[in-house]
Design a protein that fits this description.
Layout lengths: L5 H12 L5 H8 L3 H13 L19 E9 L4 H13 L3 E6 L6 E7 L2 H12 L5 E8 L13
């Protein structure tokens, strides 16, 4: 990993597991004193290595009991269509992730909803109503066996 020392990696691993650690607790667990630990974290934030610190909310506790991966194929690949779809993705809170992919589809979305009917409504009444989607393939998540946001450092 370029420009990251062992101490930086230790700090990043700790923060990925629990970003609520105080500077003192973080420093102790990383084997550093508080000031150098704080300076290293500040540098990694300033350099964009740490993009943001967030709280992960349980979907089921938020009343979102349906999750699906939806592959999307657009009618065409004109700049106007791509920009319109990108704008849609950016403004829809139900879409948690969007990736441009290879293969027979153009995009893969991770979408949440209160229930399967809510997901169907989102796809049929919101996404297909754009008029630029040729096809979708939906895979409902039955059970999530692993979920992490931590990168392997």
């Amino acid at each position: 990993m370029p420009d990251l020392e062992d101490a930086d990696i230790r700090l990043l691993r700790l923060l990925q597991a629990d970003s609520t650690l105080s500077t003192q607790a973080l420093a102790e667990r990383a084997g550093l004193s508080a000031s150098p630990a704080w300076r290293r974290v500040r540098r990694m934030i300033d350099e964009g290595i740490i993009e943001k610190q967030v709280s992960l909310v349980s979907p089921t506790h938020a009343g979102l009991h349906a999750m699906a991966y939806v592959q999307v194929s657009l009618l065409d690949h004109r700049e106007e269509s791509l920009a319109r779809f990108d704008s849609f993705v950016q403004t829809e809170d139900q879409i948690l992730e969007c990736a441009t992919i290879t293969g027979t589809s153009d995009y893969q979305l991770k979408i949440v909803a209160r229930d399967p009917e809510g997901l169907e409504h989102f796809i049929m009444r919101r996404m297909l109503a754009l008029g630029i989607v040729r096809a979708t393939v939906t895979n409902f998540v039955l059970r999530q066996t692993k979920f992490t946001t931590a990168l392997p450092l």
